Automatic annotation (TrEMBL):
It comes from the Bacteria. It holds the Pfam family HTH_5. PANTHER family: ARSENICAL RESISTANCE OPERON REPRESSOR ARSR-RELATED. The lineage of its organism: Bacteria, Pseudomonadati, Bacteroidota, Cytophagia, Cytophagales. It comes from Hymenobacter wooponensis. InterPro entries: ArsR-like_HTH (IPR011991), HTH_ArsR_DNA-bd_dom (IPR001845), Metal_resp_trans_reg (IPR051011), WH-like_DNA-bd_sf (IPR036388), WH_DNA-bd_sf (IPR036390). This is ArsR family transcriptional regulator. NCBIfam families: HTH_metalloreg. Residues 1-89 form the HTH arsR-type domain.
Length: 89
């Protein structure tokens, strides 16, 4: 239960949930790709990515000028999908 609580606390924002959902379907995405897909400012995406990376949800690596992010903790997807399937939401 502590791990589930940690996941919920770390992803408790619509933008963070959207980032996780995008990364669940792609091996890796750059900040620019995520910003374009979500149609929000790159600085705001970077803010959310940094927080989730510090908490161990995401990993990143630099390729030239771009930083690519990937899901490190795949269980996050399961928790979000479980909640999305609840009939009371």
């Amino acid at each position: 239960m502590e791990k589930v609580a940690f996941i919920l606390k770390t992803t408790a924002h619509p933008t963070r949930i959207a980032i996780v959902q995008l990364l669940a379907n792609q091996e890796r995405l750059s900040v620019t790709e995520l910003s374009e897909e979500l149609n929000i400012e790159q600085s705001l995406v970077s803010h959310h990515l940094t927080g989730m990376k510090l908490k161990g949800i995401l990993s990143s690596h630099r390729d030239g000028k771009n930083i690519f992010y990937a899901l490190k903790m795949r269980e996050v997807v399961d928790v979000i999908q479980c909640l999305a399937g609840c009939t009371f939401l």
